[in-house]
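Morning!

This is the sequence you dropped in the shared folder:
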Amino acid sequence: MNKLSPQAIIFDLGSTLVDFPVSNWEEVSRACSLKGRLYMIESGLEVPDEYEFVEKFERVRAVFRERALTDFQEWTVVEAAEVLFCKLGISNRNGLADKFFDAFYSELEQHLSLYDDTIDVLTKIRGRFDKVGLISNTIFPERVHHHEFKRFGLQQFFDFTIFSSTFGLRKPHRSIFDEASRLAGYKPNDCVYIGDRYLEDVQGATGAGMHSILKVVTGRDYPDEIPDAIRRISTLSDLADHLDI
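The structure's back. Tokens below.
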């Protein structure tokens, strides 16, 4: 397969540049919810027992997820927490939902790490291509991802970033890829998008006219038959097979 010659490279974030808990996400998500619950208890609020609290919160989030599947509207953990508090008869005073989220995220944060080759590959990409960007589907406020960028030293590599929680729509909606193309200053066919999900990243990008490369991640569900023409990598370092770096 011939190498691509784009002007702009655009990455996904979680499970592409940053190792994200995929195989044990349900376990981690539960621990995050319980960390938020503990914050509420320490704040003097009466909350249901652990099982009921997690179950109620999951029901709320399921409604948001279902909506996102049909119209690609993004939601956030903060919004879901506000709905949960309403159902529990708890007032969202003094920014309670944001503080709940901060506790929720503090549990998740310890599970995040950079892949061993992320910095090396980004350094090569930054030195070789005109524009480097990022599109990330996220149910977290954008502020925490800026924190992650500082924590992992990623700021210097990107000309622009788009987070679905701020943009309002999530991949594979075409508009988020069109916006990336606009920010890059190049036509979609001059851009390559790299991500770990087939529907959101590969089909979303190609549907918008971009080239795409699928990073295959252990624990991620993929269609039984992905077309042979789809470019695949197992690690970021494998990008050298598809790009001149």
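Headline: The radius of gyration is 19 Å.

More detail when I'm at my desk.
O.
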